[in-house]
Design brief:
This protein has helices at residues 11-28, 31-44, 50-59, 69-84, 88-106, 118-129, 134-148, 163-173, 183-194, 201-221, 225-228, 231-246, 254-276. The protein is mostly helical. It has 2 domains: 7-148, no CATH class; 163-276. The longest helix has 23 residues, at 254-276. The radius of gyration is 22 Å and the shape is elongated.
Amino acid sequence: MKIKHNKKRNTAFVYEALIREATVATLKGDKEVRDKALHLVKKHFTPNSALKKDLVCYRSLCGKQNLEKITSEKIMREAKIAQRLIDPSGLFKAQTELIDDVNKELSPSVFGNYVPNYKTLATISQIFHGRLSPKKTVMLENQIIDGMTQVTDQKIDEPKVDNVVLKTFVNKFNDKYTENLLEEQRSLLSHYISSFTDNSVELKMFLNEEITRLKKDMVNAKKVSEVKEDDEMLTKTNKIIEKLDNFANQDINEDVLLTVMRTQKLVKEIYSDGDNN
């Protein structure tokens, strides 16, 4: 008999659904919904909470991690042990409170949000909680382990948003943008959204590397004929470089985000034109 998966009691799914809700709300400029979603994440996923412990168990098995099979098998074993050590009644109560808060403070529609790795999370849930036959258990565990041994081709758990929503966000700041975002702009936005729940650690690391790259490209851009032969463009280029330098002493905000995104676009245009010429 097939065991039905209850996604509302899949801790990792609900967490990702809330991050998705916050992501879409941010890109639409809906600060109220964003703040409510992030409040629920911070309220229910505190460091020593049952939900946080459960989430860690799920995440240890998610996605392509480029691990050796023997290492993946050990992580699988330890994750199952750690998950079983979580007080089941305490976890059930915490999940119930989270579900109630989502329904009351946001909307039941949150549970319908698209989560890219839903199938993986459902499989892990079956491994953790399902009354499966030994054969079925081993088959599902091997499926997850195979995924863990694959080479990582992108950041795990980065929020995914569709082009329509991203375009809405871009148009909010600059109605001159009429095409889809660049890959580096998407990556920046994903890190920005995630920063609300990880104290901006990954965002700061990403921005440090990205701003360094952009500064180097802008300095080199002054050698491009269209720039060096135009005093106005040269002046603007120097101002952009100066502004990027000053970001080291500023808090990360939407002005910083917008400037970096526009610089990403500008760099792409400069060097694309250079290639075309």
